[in-house]
Amino acid sequence: MVKSLKIKVCGMKFTENRNAVEKLPVDLLGYIFYPPSKRYVGENPDTGLFGSGKPKAGVFMDENVFEMLALAKNLNFEYVQLHGKENPKTCKIIRAQGLKVIKAFNLNEAFDFALLKTYEKTVDYFLFDTKTNLPGGSGEKFDWSILEKYEGEIPFFLSGGIQPDDAEKIRGLDHRQLFGIDLNSGFEDEPGVKNIEKLGNFIKEMKAL
What we know:
Layout: E1 6-9, H1 15-21, E2 28-32, E3 56-60, H2 65-74, E4 79-82, H3 88-95, E5 100-107, E6 125-130, E7 156-158, H4 167-171, E8 178-183, E9 188-190, E10 193-194, H5 196-207
Parallel strand pairs: 1-2, 1-8, 2-3, 3-4, 4-5, 5-6, 6-7, 7-8
Antiparallel strand pairs: 9-10
């Protein structure tokens, strides 16, 4: 299967690096507002960091919903991405303000996809990441064959340990709701610093016919 998947690059932390990333054919940039993460934007980030012309997602974990809405409004985010235990009501409140909601779930072989049913009318996308005990992600893959168990109607982003040599394998995934891919630590020189050459080569391969 070959289809055009959306490319999301998450963990933007430095303005100069973000400027370089947004020159690539990426569709969405993610900014992490979770202090334990190595890619946390910081208490007083450079205001220029959020000046991108690309659509932007604020990434949160169990944050107060009104704090999230205030940040999204002040920084002109189009998306709010939720990585904690946020319930459908929280998602609905955010979506009612005109924002698109990406709700992340961490998968392993024991994950029950029936849990997603209650979110189907309150989110725009799911994001499937790797089940881990580490806050902010582990950079490890989950078994992508688990995706075959997902039969819902909400499109999803694939996340979790995607590496520069995974393009061919991703292009071979055959799931009607696979909407995009989320790139992060596998394309970094250090936390928050994306390797532009690796990203560029990977995206070129992903978009090749």
